[in-house]
Structure prediction request, 222 residues.
Amino acid sequence: MKKILVVEDDADIQEVLKNYLMAEGYEVRLAEDGVEGLAAFQSWGPDLVLLDVMLPKVDGFAVLELIRKESLVPVLMVTARDSVEDQVRGFHLQADDYIPKPFDMPVLLCKIAAVLRRTGRTEQKKDLVYGGLKLDEEGHHLFNEGQEVELTQKEFDLLRLFLKNSGRVFTRQNLLDQVWGEDYFGDERIVDTHIKNLRKKLGNQLIETVRGVGYRLEKIKK
Prediction:
């Protein structure tokens, strides 16, 4: 799983970026100022950095300059400072891209994937396999004992989350946040309905109920 460090002081933008990036399968760490961002970069070793310019304590240009003294890790500047002078400065400091705010999230995700491919930091996605189940993330197919099973988008996203985190117990709120999004304010019992439908389609009880807590997929025994 590729690691992305988000250095951004706006809490709302932090959450949007985190949710979208995690949904794409990235591991995400957040930092809200330049000092915290540099510390996280040095201790965590991300595969890519999303870096704002207008940061408390140490601004993004200084952060980038310090990063470049020790690493060529991809850095994408994501900032409201969109003047030609600022963009040129960013590229002179060896930013891999300069993305003005506001930005379209699908475009940003494409730029991230492109930079990771170009720098050789991508990894081949493999099918998720559990017993007789095989989930093809890229083709969006699920096979059970070789037979394709039709899933709705939310069923697919739920099953993918369980397969990637076998053994972990998820509360309904965990599942709502990661599959429906943190801005969902409907009935949390919608999770139970989708779990019930998944069980019917898979013809088994792979997704277990942990009474009083939530749901889990038993950890795969190797």
Q: What stands out?
A: The two ends are 20 Å apart (CA to CA). The CA atoms of residues 193 and 199 lie 10 Å apart. The mean pLDDT is 89. The longest strand covers residues 3-7.
